[in-house]
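User: Batch of two.

Assistant: Item 1 of 2:
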Amino acid sequence: MVQISSVDSLAARLLSATLMFDRASLAALEALAAESDRRVLRRGEVLVREGDPSDRFFIVLSGRFTVHKGDSTGPVAVIGQGELVGEVGFFAGLPRTATVLAARDSIVLEIRGSHFEKAAEALPSLRQAVTTFLARRFAMQSPSSSLLKQPARIRTLAIIPAGGSRISPIFIRHLQNAFDASTRARFVARADIQARFSGLPVDDQPVLNWLNELEAETEIIVYVADDEASEWTRVCIRQADTVLLLADASCSPRLNPSEALALSVHPPSTGRLVLIHDIRSIAVSGTSAWLDERPHVGHHHHVALEDGSDIQRLVRFISGKARGFVAAGGGSLGSAHLGVYKAFVGAGARFDYLGGTSSGAAMMAGFARGLDADQIDRGTHDIFIKGRAFRRLTVPHFALLDHKVFDRALRAEYSEVLIEDLWLPFFALSTNLSSRQPHVHRRGKLWQAVRASGSIPGVLPPFFTADGDMLVDGGIMNNLPLEQMKELKTGPNVVVSLGSNGPQKYHIDYDRIPGASELAVAWLNPFGRAGLPKVPSMLQVIVASMLAHRPQDIALGEEDVLVCPQVSNPIGFMDWSRHSELFSDAYDWTSRWIEERLRQNDPGLRAVLGSSDG
């Protein structure tokens, strides 16, 4: 009689869940697992190769694999624990259709034809279950969509010391508490391995088997590396889906050997740099030195240890639940974002990433800097009403407006703070006319990002970067940058679109629009100006033309919430005089809108407000 081990029981449970068997079938599946072989693959090893015979299939017991087809530059799919590999070719009698690589140290159960036939005799419903599983999977796949719809959920995370830092035990305790409140997490350090497996190497087979079982019992394993590049640190890096580079912000930013190894094993763009601060100061400085040393690291976070808010935000990023606020451009209508944001915060929302285009970027930049809605509204008044920044005409050679006045106003409002030094992650979107691509601002001076994102062609001169790129208003390519937000994080978003009240008609007698001489006479005569047809100004036409180019469909996810604030009295795109009125109206409307959605038990709103985290 075949002896059943705990690993076989795990494999049987995973097969049962995947193929939708009941508990009565576990004994037969355990026997199948006990008869089959287990394989341990190190990161980068090939499990199956495209074109090879399909004489067996696999179930992933632990780890992660990437799927590669033909000459594709990157993976077309990711396979995680409990999923099958190679089953289509095996049951269809076809060669392998793709190459599958271990994305980290992984363990699979290898099921050959003879093993499957023996199990099918003991469990007659096995063949039908596999057929149903394959049919269900093919039915769920859209031929026109990519296999890689969303980033795979992180199951294992390695914490590596960065720069001249050591791993902070205070941070680890805070992180454990934050995970305990939201998800089942297990922290594993060298001491845990030594206590359980005294005398065994940290990468011995019994250790890997235990980690394999642990992964099935928890939602995420957090590997805490040593402070130096030890064998345990190397195991942590190999076992992890992604790495978290942890540093005391006051230490040297020089790349250390553990980081160099982690960034050589993992795609740097998936890593996260976490800079720890003892207290939440008004301004952070020095982040650029850390990022310059790690130019390809995808994300960075500032964490103050004096409270738990930053660590809770970090946990939401790691868990794929980070909440975003995406703000559309719309000229003076951008003040509506203040009301929408204030209403959501008042309802309990806490946002983790802010992004926007044009005036939407300007409003989100204020929140990212730590201002509240009323302070940003006062700043709007200082820039556009008191400072008359959009009424300072100049000789129309480079643009209609004197950009120097506007630039000084932005400097005064946002100071010289850098985006990378903000406590709250932020991006602004502009249009790069040099590369003809959207340009996402995640580093550099905050006021310059706002200036570039709002560079309305013809109204303001373009913004030019040190690399020679010419940037104009982001609304030309994408006035609602939800796509860019989804590239930066996973999780629910509040998406705010402006000016969507339907088509606007202009009842103008075209023949009555005066020519140059008639217009000059009318302007010289105060009474003559009143008789001019109410044709939109040059500025209004430019802005309306820019905003006319919008994506036809907004790719909302299941947990995204689209908000289109309605105002009682229409406001023009350049009518900044009514900014406070618009702010107030949008707040009142959004507050009522949220209350109504809560009564309807809206799942997207629950996700944004965090009421579904538990």
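Item 2 of 2:
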Amino acid sequence: MRIHINKIDLVGTGREFSITPGLKIITGSITTGKTTLIKCFRGLLGSILKDFSREARQKITHLVGEIIIGDNAYEIIRPFVTTSDALISIAGENETKRLPALRSKSDEETYGTWLLEQLNLPTLRVPTAPTQDDSDTSPLSINDYMMYCHLRQDEIDSSVFGHTNFPKNNKRKYVFEVIYGKYDVEIAQLQMKRRETVSEIRRLQNYTKTIDEFLTGTPFENRAAILHNLNNVIRELETAYLDSETLGQEIRGYTNTDELRENLLEVQQKLDELHQKLQYEQYSLAQKQSLIAQLQTQSARLTKSIVAGKYLLDFDFLSCPRCGSSIQPSRTQPEICYLCLQQPEPQITQDDLIKEQDRLEQQITETFELVNAHRTATTDIEQEITRLDAQRQTLSFEINHRTRRYVSEQAEQIAQVEQHRTQLQEQKQRLEEYLGLYNRHDQAINTIQQLESNLEELDTAIDLANSRVSEFENYIGFLDRTYQEILREIRVPSFSDPGPSIIDRKTYLPRFEGRRFDELESQGLKVMVNVAHALAHQLTCIHFDLKLPNILLIDGLSGNIGYEGLDRERIEAVYSCIIRISHEYQNRLQIIVSDNTVPESAREYILVEFSDENKLIPF
């Protein structure tokens, strides 16, 4: 998938770079900021912003840039902090988001997962220990895929995409298999289900083993004996309940409290009814008092209206309020207003207001009568409640007195009955708990059998998925040939007994003339092999349209290669090869190189040249 950094602005430093397609070179002497700029590019592509210089930490506040993914352009604003949940702003033509960088508080989307989605890269969880069926799993992140797109300065002469680090090497191999189709989504899901199934089988087996060891050598190791004893205890417990009930009946019969208990129940029912009535009367009283207040307020308003009307009815205009001329009532007929010469509209008369006030006063009087009735009823109910409550206390005292007297006389018998019943209940509970262990043991065995059946089905499905025709070998064969062609083109020195230069089918590491990468002693040779290997991956994935981001960052290209004689020619050959590939795949592959020294033939591709006077992070 094509991904291109269009521009980047290191906010706080005044540094801004626009990057055209193809090859771009960052050059300059040591400690001037080349690696820092490469790491800022990676920051736009999702890496953690760590291991930056003190100057960069102090100056840079945000990374602001534009990236092209496929045919879509996105503006990115990322705070220059190390926290993995810092919010990154994304703005595209039809998309605007703010996402945490690489980690969220839940399973929400992050900038890393957003990049995976835009680049059409699968979201998978892979085992951390592939040889163990029950190993933990870890997700393949955007940075795991970007390993194949970045030759780091501290690894370019010693490691192939961090293969010397175990966790990174494990992810590196899985990314290889995902990109080249050997480890697809379907197989990953099946293998994950298989690991979960194996883990659950082992957990249940340990669980059943624990139960067996717990019961062995105890009186409860015989399940049939537990059932037999439980049935006996249940029968004895039923007898104990009958004895307890019989004893209770004897207490009531001896103490003659049945009639008292019935009277107490009747009194309690009456009290409940009276309390309900009391609540109703109190509520009604409050409602009537509120109504009286409303009626009195309305009556006061009518009084004001009557008084105001009395003073205003005889008010006449003797002169025009507009021009001041005198006005005679005889200027028109009596039913016509002599001021405005219009027919007056009907109005409420003073008599109407007085009648309405009389009606309100009568309603207030009637409501006061209802209030008094509710108060009387409330008082009567409260007195009755007091009387019945005293009666209830008397009955309760008498019942308790008679019962205590008999119980004290029969205390030993009652204690024995209750003790025996309690012991039986405890024994029943203990037997049921042990029987529950056997039941859970049976359930676990049944679940194990079902899971083992599921495991066989999963193994069959995995074998079927692996047996399908795959282009994996075809892809790797093309990768081998491309790797060999680039090695020849960049004039890598040869050994006297050369073997094949291929990709190891087990480790997925490059071999050079039959030698493993770790067997190569020359750092300069390791750099050339690393560059050829990384370029071969990009060209293979472009040729077959495989899922690898088509961008390559090379930090410190010739740092460990000499500059005399054949070494200089090899450096020029490396740059010549990169320039050729850049021209051929200019719209598909972006290559950004940092180097201390650049051959004359490549100087036209320089993006920026730093120096001690012109550092990336200015003083």
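The chain is about 55% helix and 10% strand.
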